[in-house]
Write a structure and sequence with these properties.
Gfo/Idh/MocA family protein, six-stranded parallel sheet, alpha/beta, 9 helices, Rossmann fold
């Protein structure tokens, strides 16, 4: 493909350097043109390491570059809204890391800004672009596992010793619900094609980590008496799993968001492994983004989807703080 979407990256976060930038470079549609940091030296070092042509010593400078079509934002959560809106006002399409904002009100402002500027805004849930989730939805719709009874999702890791990590700054949008709980929440919405009606969450609010939720366990009540139960954490052993439970079978996803894409289907007839291609989810995300930006296809996930996900995260955080069930 000769046509390329020219990307600029604001920030040198680990997710950008280790996953998203390599994914864009492996995509059919994208090329990384520039990267910006708060200091020129770090931007130049990262640009040299990843063979990015341009480096900028401020976020403002990269937005003035007319050779950039889209901006990827992996900044700390409290900066997502400001720099996404500034990028969109500069005429750039924006891919913003999850969670897209600190709350639903901020996400709505970002959605409004994208419409006003006439640009594409997307939340970076890369796992949604792997075809395995379409396959899982096919299995659910086929009735092979019977009537749906519930979903359980997990995403945990242990990074508690890194006390200066931005994930442990409450005012910056720290905590496990923001960081990894958002994954099973979005996955349940994707698989069920529905929005929950209430949330109840219990959390470990750690004084050693600015009272962010270092571990959280919750239940989201969906229509039809179906629930998502989930747990997420940044002070627990690593796992990222999903189980979809039906009346006559279940789908087991050992690596639901990162890692091997294959999954297992259990029925009364036994079990089988659904082998899935080893595709780069970040490259798939970049290609989908580009085709929407070019007007070749409609967005599978409009900005309103991100607003809806943030509304649920708001309820989860409120429930964790108040120890009460929160209706949506």
């Amino acid at each position: 493909m000769s046509r390329k979407l020219r990307w600029g990256v604001i920030g040198c976060a680990g997710i950008a350097v280790g996953a998203v930038i390599p994914g864009i470079k492996q995509s059919e549609t994208g090329v990384v043109t520039a990267i910006a940091s708060r200091g020129l030296e770090k931007a130049e070092q990262t640009a040299a390491k990843l063979e990015i042509p341009k480096a900028y010593g401020s976020y403002e400078e990269i937005l003035q570059d007319f050779d950039i079509d889209a901006i990827y934002i992996p900044l700390p959560n409290h900066l997502h809204m400001e720099w996404s809106i500034r990028a969109m006002e500069a005429g750039k399409h924006v891919l913003c890391e999850k969670p897209i904002a600190l709350n639903a009100a901020e996400a709505q402002k970002m959605a409004d800004a994208s419409r006003k500027a006439g640009v594409h805004l997307a939340e970076a849930f890369m796992y949604r672009f792997h075809p395995r989730y379409d396959r899982m939805k096919e299995i659910i719709r086929s009735g092979e596992i019977g009537e749906l009874r519930g979903i359980h999702g997990t995403f945990t890791f242990n990074n508690a010793g890194d006390s200066k990590n931005v994930r442990y700054r409450k005012e910056w949008g720290g905590g496990s619900i923001y960081d990894v709980g958002c994954y099973p929440i979005s996955a349940a919405r994707l698989l069920l094609d529905a929005e929950p009606e209430a949330a109840t969450v219990h959390a470990l609010l750690s004084p050693e980590h600015d009272y962010v939720d270092m571990m959280a366990s919750g239940i989201l009540e969906f229509p039809g008496s179906v629930a998502l139960t989930f747990d997420c954490g940044m002070w627990a052993a690593f796992r990222n799993t999903l189980e979809v439970l039906g009346t006559t079978g279940r789908i087991e996803v050992p690596s639901a968001f990162i890692g091997d894409a294959s999954f297992i289907v259990h029925t009364n007839d036994g079990k089988r492994e659904e082998q899935q291609p080893a595709l780069n989810q970040y490259a798939l995300q970049a290609d989908d983004f580009a085709r929407v930006a070019w007007g070749e296809q409609a967005a599978r996930f409009a900005p309103e989807d991100a607003v809806a996900n943030m509304r649920i995260i708001d309820a989860c955080l409120e429930s964790a703080e108040t120890r009460k069930r929160v209706q949506l």
